[in-house]
């Protein structure tokens, strides 16, 4: 069954809203990745922070008062008209919420614990519920007064990609007629210090697939799709989730399988699910974290699945790695590239120093001049790989204008 992605709300280091994000995405504008102090002791690091004004939370309890929920609310407000139309059409019990996150409100929880250690008591702004992983879905369902299924998936950097796959399952099973799905993650000291302890943080802008790559940058984002069983938007070429697959190779708690076996399997499974051959994919958004192990594994896997090559890029030098939100954010970049508003047929450029690693297969990396070629319909894949060997691939495509 076709899973239509009718509406998209998003914000990240590139900007707030689809238009601002698209303009800076295709321009390869990495100015949103700014150096900041205070996240990791004695280090100044580039981070993909959101600097736009965020909406105030409407009369929520202390347990819901987090930056993470404010980011999510901003994404939801961008598509509020579409959400309200879906609620009116299907009823509040038939609309679900599935989100991916890895931080939830841990930033506020950390501040609360710091206050306790300093003053001997928790500040009034602290509540343990802020850090619960289910908090973003509960907040969104409460705000919209939805009574359909509402839950969070937390599988590290595949979390929000899995949320899209799971949303489609709710539609396929007949449990829901519409699902709000995506992901949200906010910057926090716990996350950055965790990656710092793994010696995975780059001191400069990340440099995916370069021989000089030196680690990741961390960012924050919120992404929300309205997925339905039927096409709701009649004015634009519809975009759908055509295929999806997930697996876990369980190779190591934090390192990927060096040969990328799980990555190869999940890409092939997503293609099979979409009923497509590799040569029918017009663009691939790479996971591309710029760590030594990830880029080596992914380049081997992509070369095996796409032996003829495929235009591809990592967008993490533009946004930072947004962790639990990354899968949905990079699927959103595919959505933007497939949309009718992308009149110049531009593709997200790969921002790097152009010094290829001679030990890795050469990939067909995009530039600012890269454009979609061939006739519609067009198909795009987005990869997400995570700790513990969790792998997800999504295939998005635009459909014929007369699709019912």
UniProtKB/TrEMBL annotation:
Domain of life: Bacteria
Signal peptide: none
GO cellular component: cytosol
GO biological process: fatty acid biosynthetic process
Keywords: Transferase
Domain Ketosynthase family 3 (KS3): 1-398
UniProt pathway annotation: Lipid metabolism; fatty acid biosynthesis
Entry-linked Pfam families: ketoacyl-synt, Ketoacyl-synt_C
Entry-linked SUPFAM superfamilies: Thiolase-like
GO molecular function, one term: 3-oxoacyl-[acyl-carrier-protein] synthase activity
InterPro entries assigned: Beta-ketoacyl_synthase, Ketoacyl_synth_AS, Ketoacyl_synth_C, Ketoacyl_synth_N, PKS_Beta-ketoAc_synthase_dom, Thiolase-like
The UniProt record lists the keyword DNA repair: no
Family as reported in the entry's similarity comment: Belongs to the thiolase-like superfamily. Beta-ketoacyl-ACP synthases family.
NCBIfam families registered for this protein in UniProt: PRK09185.1
UniProt-recorded name of the protein: Beta-ketoacyl-[acyl-carrier-protein] synthase family protein
Taxonomic classification: Bacteria, Pseudomonadati, Pseudomonadota, Gammaproteobacteria, Pseudomonadales
